[in-house]
């Protein structure tokens, strides 16, 4: 797959060329390792909302989602009721899909249970860090994402299949899936080396 040459003259992952807003997201967020529970929960929710849609749609609405869902504080979302569902279904700034909205509320409750059981969401998710890597951006699922999705389903989480789980793992840095020629790949590698795996 050919590189996308950014305005600074350096190569990036090909998908960066799809929209102007992709470049800052790619350079500053995508693939950098994350151990913050709120950010992990946010990303999993946004990946669920993306199901059947483009990431560009979700990225452009991300700030609206953050406002609507209290910055993805799952302790607050876990208390949402039908009034909140109705409020969100009227919010033109987000994706108004009842099933996905209700899944976020359900998953917030499951996240609370996971914190009680595991200590943090990060400790749970980072158990699925792959040990063997395929060539960058050559797959949409992996044995680890299939196992993660299966475990989440068993724990009662919704709208998190293997493809969603893999996109989450790519974005949150559980693997460095930047193209080999991408200038950001080395920065992610450095972040990885300094990253303290949550336990």
From TrEMBL:
<dbReference type="InterPro" id="IPR011257">
    <property type="entry name" value="DNA_glycosylase"/>
</dbReference>
<dbReference type="InterPro" id="IPR005019">
    <property type="entry name" value="Adenine_glyco"/>
</dbReference>
<dbReference type="Pfam" id="PF03352">
    <property type="entry name" value="Adenine_glyco"/>
</dbReference>
<protein>
    <submittedName>
        <fullName>DNA-3-methyladenine glycosylase I</fullName>
    </submittedName>
</protein>
<dbReference type="InterPro" id="IPR052891">
    <property type="entry name" value="DNA-3mA_glycosylase"/>
</dbReference>
């Amino acid at each position: 797959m050919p590189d996308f040459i950014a305005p600074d003259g350096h190569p990036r992952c090909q998908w960066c060329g799809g929209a102007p807003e992709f470049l800052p997201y790619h350079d500053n967020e995508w693939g950098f390792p994350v151990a913050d529970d709120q950010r992990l929960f946010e990303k999993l929710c946004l990946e669920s909302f993306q199901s059947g849609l483009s990431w560009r749609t979700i990225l452009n609405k991300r700030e609206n989602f953050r406002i609507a869902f209290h910055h993805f504080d799952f302790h607050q979302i876990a208390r949402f009721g039908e009034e909140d569902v109705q409020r969100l279904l009227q919010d033109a700034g987000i994706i108004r899909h009842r099933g996905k909205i209700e899944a976020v509320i359900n998953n917030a409750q499951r996240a609370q249970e996971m914190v009680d059981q595991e200590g943090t969401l990060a400790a749970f998710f980072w158990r699925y860090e792959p040990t063997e890597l395929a060539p960058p951006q050559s797959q949409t699922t992996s044995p680890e994402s299939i196992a993660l999705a299966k475990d989440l389903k068993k724990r009662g989480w919704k709208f998190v299949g293997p493809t969603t789980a893999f996109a989450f793992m790519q974005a949150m840095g559980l693997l460095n899936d930047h193209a080999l020629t991408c200038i950001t790949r080395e920065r992610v590698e450095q972040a990885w080396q300094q990253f303290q795996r949550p336990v």
